[in-house]
Amino acid sequence: MSTATAGGPAAPGPPGPPAPGTRRSSIVRTRPWLAACFLLPALVLLGALVVYPIVYSVYRSLFDASGTGFVGLGNYVELFTDDDTLTAIRNNTIWVIVAPTVCTALGLIFAVLTERVRWGTAFKLIVFMPMAISMLAAGIIFRLVYEQDPDRGVANAVWVGIHDTFNEASAWPGARPRPNGDLEKTGGGAYTTGSAVDAADPANLPLVGVPPQDLADAAEASPARPAGDGGITGTVWVDFAKGGGGEPNVVDPGEKALAGVVVEAVRDGRVVATATTGEDGVFTLPAEADGAHLRLPASNFTEAYNGVNWLGPSLITPAIIASYVWMWAGFAMVLIAAGLAGVPRELLEAARVDGANEWQVFRRVTVPVLAPVLAVVLVTLMINVLKIFDLVYIIAPGATQSDANVLALQLYLSSFGTGADQGVGSAIAVLLLLLVVPVMVFNIRRLRREGRR
């Protein structure tokens, strides 16, 4: 096409579109050797790092542990008959359903709630920071967090603190009477005197079994004296002197008092009076207690609440999933926040003008518009959790590792653990590949549909 100019020949115009039925020449057709030179390094790496391991794993899964005996599909049959592998498949199913869903939901909530606050960027930074920590380091951190001892494990320290706020701890957990003494064990863990008490004779209630470190701040026990008004007096103490010596059932110098012990006077199965020992271990009951039996309730001796066994068989998988969510919720939040930034504000304002409240705007406008981003996050995390290994291997103690088992961990144990069988390990690797492929195919098809829009 040309354009006429004054006093001169027509000037050439811009090139038009190619004629129908013709194709643009490409470098692949004109210089295929050049295209091959550029693709060859990538193809070599792809073949060496991806294709060859897959092909060899499939081949190796058809042989026995030595690699010389052909067993066909025997290794795959063993996968679905072995209890450890079945547990791993069950746990992987829980992981795939729970972990990506919780991470995506939290990421969506964080992204939406921080959009309007002034310090939203700082909050996002804090939530995203765990992504900078390796799985190994995160596993070590949460192994300490979930320690059973409240003095070491943060989770149980918080849990025990909350529990003890609403439930008073026992005075002297683990204390017990001296063998062959007057105190006898009765129902519910309480201890009751075998003989009735007399106002003229102070009641001595010796106990043992208290660790020395718990008595470091205890005062020295004092012998009780008759009250003089018909009341009952007595002493509750640790009948054991440091270094030995002393007379049993007698308050010897240097023996420690047990303060805060509740003493009940019981007559005919009914509590007629109650007292609590002072700092010197002495207690005083009113005259109504004369002739009754003395009882030390079980609440004085119950073991201190030690928190939740986070790493026990019933909670080990949820505990590890929680550590994964701590790491990856920030990843989901950042991607969803980026998608939220591209949502047209006109849509949101139009919905509000039409009378929709914030929940309706979120449910009927924000979430549908963010659906492609949510799908990307969900699928990415599903692929990621199918390969989870580090957290389970590090956090789960040996006693409950089988309860927290996942396919990647079972692959490692089968291939390199006790009684290693790389044929079974290769079969697990092929099974993992087969589980990941449908998710990847779904993701690729979704991306292609997005690209055609």
Rounded Rg: 37 Å
Uncertain stretches: 1-7
Overall 3D form: elongated
CATH fold annotation of the domain at 82-155 and 310-420: MetI-like fold
State the strand order across the main sheet.
Answer: 4-5-11-8-9
Ends: how far apart? Answer: 33 Å
CATH 4th-level superfamily of the domain at 82-155 and 310-420? MetI-like
Q: Percent of residues in beta strands?
A: 5-15%
CATH uppermost class of the domain at 82-155 and 310-420: Mainly Alpha
Structural class, from helix and strand content?
alpha+beta
Count of DSSP strands: 11
Provide the helix percentage: 40-55%
* Main pleated-sheet profile: 5 strands, antiparallel
Mean pLDDT across all amino acids:
86
H/E element order? EEHHHHHHHEEEEEEEEEHHHHHHH
The CATH architecture of the domain at 82-155 and 310-420: Orthogonal Bundle
By DSSP (H or I, 4+ residues per run), the number of helices equals 14
In words, what does this structure look like?
- This protein has helices at 27-30, 32-60, 74-79, 83-113, 120-128, 135-145, 154-166, 316-341, 345-353, 358-369, 371-386, 390-395, 407-416, 422-452; strands spanning 2-5, 8-12, 176-177, 183-185, 191-193, 203-208, 232-238, 262-267, 270-276, 282-285, 293-296.
- By secondary structure, it is α+β, with helices and mostly antiparallel strands.
- Among the domains are: 82-155 and 310-420, MetI-like fold (Orthogonal Bundle), CATH 1.10.3720; 176-300, no CATH class.
- The strands form 3 sheets. It has a 5-stranded antiparallel β-sheet with strand order 4-5-11-8-9, with no helix packed on it. A 4-stranded mixed β-sheet has the order 3-6-7-10, with no helix packed on it.
- A hairpin with a 2-residue loop joins strand 1 (2-5) and strand 2.
- Helix 2 (32-60) packs across helix 14 (422-452), helix 4 packs parallel to helix 8 (316-341) and helix 13 packs antiparallel against helix 14.
- It starts with a strand and ends with a helix.
- It is a multi-pass membrane protein.
- It is found in: Cell membrane.
- Belongs to the binding-protein-dependent transport system permease family.
- InterPro entries: Ig-like_fold, MetI-like, MetI-like_sf, UgpAE/MalFG_permease.
- Its main location: membrane.
